[in-house]
Structures are given as structure tokens and as C-alpha cells.
Amino acid sequence: MIGMSSISLFSQSENLRLGFQISPTISSLKSSDAGIQTKGANLGLILGAMGEYYLSEKVAITGGLNLSFHQGGKIIHEIGGNFFINSELSDDILNTGDMPLPNGVKLNYSLQTLEIPFGMKIRTRELGYFRIFAELPTLNFIFVTQARADIEGAGVNVEKENIKKDVSFANFYLGAGIGGEYAISESTSFVFGLYYNGSIIDVTDNDAYKAFPNPNDKPGDPTDDYFRQEEDSKGSISRFTIKLGLLF
Q1: What are the strands of the beta sheet with 226-230, ordered from one edge?
Q2: SS (HEC) of 207-238
Q3: Pairing of strands 170-183, 156-162
Q4: Per-domain boundaries in the chain
Q5: Which of 79, 86, 146, 208 would bridge with 231, disulfide CB 3.0–4.6 Å?
Q6: Does residue 221 register a pLDDT over 80?
Q7: For residue 10, is pLDDT > 60?
Q8: What CATH topology corresponds to 16-247?
Q9: What average pLDDT does this structure show over 49-56?
């Protein structure tokens, strides 16, 4: 029985491969509100561990644990308002009152996240030293560890404001990828691929609101200069990743 258990354990270890990745990313933030426009992408990075458990020579379940940096993107709000109500910004004037941020304000979201990815990988037989693979679907569990924003507009220009309280703490990214493996040695492979992921849950907090001039405001009364409209659009992140890693 001891011999059979040892053989079984050895067989399982042969099916498991572990490694690490250092992968650049390009991410952008878009909104379901036509008045909030995407105006630029963020160059980021993923660092982490990855693993594959092979159900057969060509099919594996994938997983890992990653840290990602500078995820998000740049957006412009055509209509100004108060978009970081819950955060403690460097100056109270940035999130106090009806319209602390002006029309046309540009916001650059930069998120640092902990990611737990899972996927299903299908690969070809060996083509010399190469194998080609597809990984689909991929599902990433996302937890925001840090959130910063640069704010730029008429009368305001600040960087790296802490906005963690105004973004969703957890999210899910759904996607797919294609790539290849190059055998460096009998037990080590260089892995490369192109992946796309998109967030499922709203990235931004819906406590924010837009501010419109009040046509019925009374002269001399500063409390009714604007009326508020809830900013309840869905913000989503789209990300391309160039996966670069080693499997052992």
C-alpha cells in the first residue's frame, strides 16, 4: 500500500507545473454614460505565480496568485460634479459642495489589485520545441488593495489622490487568451501569450453625482445654484495582457 501511494503521489506531481510571470498590460476604463468618455489607457504590470494541473497531455486547469499595478484608465466627465464623495482627498474643496470638479474634468484611475485567476487550457501536441495553446475561459477574482486618481481640469490639478473608498473593493474579470510554450529544457518552458479580460462589476462607486445649473435659482442664494443628478453609470475596465513567464 505504501508503494502504491508513492506511485500515485509521484504521478500527481508529474501533472502539476508551477512557475511565475512578469507581464505588461494595457488597460482602459469606459462608462455606460455617453457623457463620460474614455480618453487614454494605462500601461501596467502583473507580477505573480502561476500553476497548471494537467488532466491529460493536452488539457489543464490553470490558477495563480498575482499582484497587478497601474490598472484602470483615463476618462473625461463632460458634466462636472462631486465624484469622490467618500474619499479623504488632499483638499476638502475637491469633494465638498455641489460642483467641486468642473465640466470637462479629466480623471486618471490607477488601481493596484490582488488577483486570483482560474482557467481551462487546451494545447497542441509538441511541434518541435513548441506547443500552441488557448486558455478559455479565464476568470479572475479581483481585490483592490490601492486606488489613486489624478484630477485635472479648470482650476484643479492634483495627482495620486486616495480614492479607494469610491471604487468597488472586489470584482471579476472574464476573458480568454492564446499563446505558445517553448521548451528550454526537458522540465522548463518559456510561456508567452496575448490575453483579454473585462470587468463584470461596476468599478466606480455610485454615490457620485453630476451638477447642473439650476434655472430657478434665486439671486443671492448660493444653496440653489445647482441641482444634483445621481451618477449611476457602470464603469468597466478592459485589459490586454502580454503574458511572459516560465513554467517548471
Answers
A1: 81-82, 209-213, 226-230
A2: CCEEEEECCCCCCCCHHHCEEEEECCCCEEEE
A3: unpaired
A4: 16-247
A5: 208
A6: no
A7: no
A8: Porin (2.40.160)
A9: 97
